[in-house]
Amino acid sequence: MFSIIRLIIWLAGVAVLAYFLLPYFGYEVNANYWSERKTVCQDRLTQCRKDLIQSGLQGAKENCNFQCVDPKILIKKK
Fold first, then answer.
1. Which of 66, 68, 74, 70 is nearest to 32 (CA)?
2. Does residue 69 sit in helix, strand or coil?
3. Smallest Cα–Cα separation from 64: which of 78, 37, 45?
4. Count of CB atoms situated within 10 Å of the CB of 60
5. Among 18, 35, 44, which Cα is nearest to 73's?
6. Which residues have CB under 8 Å from 74's CB, separation 6+?
């Protein structure tokens, strides 16, 4: 139990350090990323749902891409 708490504290510390060190190296964190991408992901999910109903599993495998997180947009170069 102690090791899990220690791991969480370490991860939080690394995240805080990264958040403050990224601007120093010329990068910025896109804070509006989740609100901007939410509608795009919901639209993709709706389209995939329609494809699944119309053409079955094979059509969904060909047309559906569930990777909504794009790290290139999440952390941008200034």
1. 74
2. coil
3. 45
4. 16
5. 35
6. 29, 30, 33
CA R_g for the chain: 18
CA 22 to chain centre: 18
Q: What SS3 class is residue 26?
A: coil
Dihedral sign computed on CA atoms, order 67, 50, 47, 39: negative
Q: Looking at the predicted structure, is the pLDDT value of residue 11 above 90?
A: yes
Q: What is the pTM of this model?
A: 0.49
Q: Which two tokens stand for residue 4?
A: 């899990």
CA–centroid distance for 5 within its chain: 24
Res 70: pLDDT:
72
pLDDT digits (tens, 9 = 90+) for 33-78: 778 788 888 888 888 888 777 776 665 566 676 677 777 777 778 7
Give the pLDDT of residue 76. Answer: 78
